[in-house]
Amino acid sequence: xKQDLLTFADWSPEGMQRLLELAxxxxxxxxxxxxxxxxxxxxxxxxKPSLRTRVSFDIGxxxxxxxxxxxxxxxxxxxxxxxxxxxxxxxxxxxxxIVARVxxxxxxxxxxxxxxxxxxxxxxxxxxxxxxxADYLTIVEQFGKTQGLTVAYIGDGNNVTHSLMIVxxxxxxxxxxxxxxxxxxxxxxxSQANTLAMQTGATITLSHDLADAEGANVLYTDTxxxxxxxTPLAEIKDTFMPYQINEALMTRTGASxxxxxxxxxxxxxxxxSLIDSDASLLMQQAENRMHGQNAILTHLLSGL
Length: 304
What we know:
Elements: H1 13-28, E1 41-46, H2 52-63, E2 67-72, H3 84-94, E3 97-101, H4 105-114, E4 119-123, H5 129-143, E5 150-154, H6 159-170, E6 174-178, H7 187-200, E7 204-207, E8 218-221, H8 233-240, H9 247-253, E9 257-260, H10 272-275, H11 282-302
Parallel strand pairs: 1-2, 1-3, 3-4, 5-6, 5-8, 6-7, 8-9
């Protein structure tokens, strides 16, 4: 029976830990996995533009011995041309898996129901599971563990926040989510994370007060405007600027490292000097997108 990866919310802590260990093994011994996708083709269907997601999947699949076919729905004029379920069913006739970067989680659900091959969520409005795995691969490389650490996410509660909470809860990492009023993560996503945290002893804290980030090991932020949100920056800058991650906040909280899923906007949600500092894990996160995604594809397509 095929398995999709639309979210990690339905995974167990044991399964999440095994996938993380697989990602570490693939990164450390790439030649051992150089043919794991030999003879397999993966379609990457993108409704939204991308740098890290597209390149990391393309090169990563090649390193596993597979072949990627990239479809830009806008450039190829595929959007609206036929029903989503028909598109997915057709792609499944040729491809061994479908990687989809879409606007709506509902699109992924339709793909899942229509395609007889695994569907991987490369980003949607609710989740960003590939980023979440890459983030915790980065954290375990830096700290040697995830259990008992604290990540403080500061900024807009969005799809990245949701997956950061979910994967962190599965791995026993405490989560502090600090947002301006009105920008908290979705309640049902918080509920999912809390349910998982009960299994591992992790805590989930929601706040609007930066003082609650004190004692965190890592500060994490994302852009204030998600891709596709056309709200003028000037309208939200005054709301979010007090939540900027900068050197003063690092000193105040005692955090040793800073993370950002990118693209980053220098001197808005994070200072450029902090991005370029020794505390920054941004490029390690970016590299680990490939290794995490390779672990996902290896698991889904080879059963490892």
